[in-house]
Amino acid sequence: MPADPLGQTPSGQTSSGRTSGRPSSDRTFDGQVVVVTGAGSGIGRATAVAFAEAGAWVLGVGRREQPLKETAAAHPRIEILAADICADGAPAEVIGTAVRRWGRLDHLVNNAGATAVMPLAETDRQTVVDLFALNVVAPSLLAHAALPHLRQSSGSIINLSSTYGHRPMPGGAHYAATKAAVEQLTRSWALELAGDGVRVNAVAPGPTSTDVMLHAGLTPEAANDMYAYERDRIPTHHIAHPDEVAHWVLRMADPAGRHATGQVITVDGGLDLV
Question: Is 227 a catalytic residue?
Fold first, then answer.
């Protein structure tokens, strides 16, 4: 992708027809730099596109290069890095790539994660270890690598939790535990970094139309059955679209919201209330 000076707008900018829920003239994040993990699909892709449409330069990170290329094709302000964020040295590589490319970092979106359908009777040690490595350890090390740059820019960290980070999830307790950990990291980092001008917040989606359940090992039929079950339980009877979650990620990063830190915004159609 051609190099453009920080803050300048490429000509012919388009959004490939995607709807992010933000007006195309909105330049809230003009010239800012954002790292989004798990950007190859779902909420991560929607978030990367929404930030780019709002004027940011975005580094989309994920393990699979082809889906990342599809994300990058959605907007000329998105560049990509194929990397396993759980690998040794990967967090420093991710943050270093963004800073070398654009000279700064304003927001880190810790979106990459995995779920697992695993009742206690079927608990597998490696599955537990892998869940915590991706959902808790990797975001922690990315935040550590990003911190010096976020202090310079008075930037923010937005973690992706889940409505199941603060409500029971029978058959998925270990996933829920990782998201509970993310919410406690969010609150604790917010207090720790408030004096540095760095805000830390989280967005906790409810059931969202992504491929996460397929990656968890469910068949398409089983995933559809699960979404139908969840839709019946949600007061609005609506499974979220990734763009609807991305909207709230951007709201939590918005410079106009500088007085909000340590907050977990639940976006689940009221599921948390029942």
Answer: no
User: Which tens digits make up the pLDDT trace of 107-117?
Assistant: 999 999 999 98
Tell me what pLDDT residue 217 has: 64
Between these two residues, 2 and 118, which has the higher pLDDT value? 118
Q: Is the pTM of this model over 0.85?
A: yes
The one catalytic residue among 164, 175, 227, 229: 175
Q: Residue by residue, what is the 3-state secondary structure of the chain?
A: CCCCCCCCCCCCCCCCCCCCCCCCCCCCCCCCEEEEECCCCHHHHHHHHHHHHCCCEEEEEECCHHHHHHHHCCCCCEEEEECCCCCCCHHHHHHHHHHHHHCCCCEEEECCCCCCCCCHHHCCHHHHHHHHHHHHHHHHHHHHHHHHHHHHHCCEEEEECCHHHCCCCCCCHHHHHHHHHHHHHHHHHHHHHHHHCCEEEEEEECCECCCHHHHCCCCHHHHHHHHHHHHHHCCCCCCECHHHHHHHHHHHHCHHHCCCCCCEEEECCCHHHC
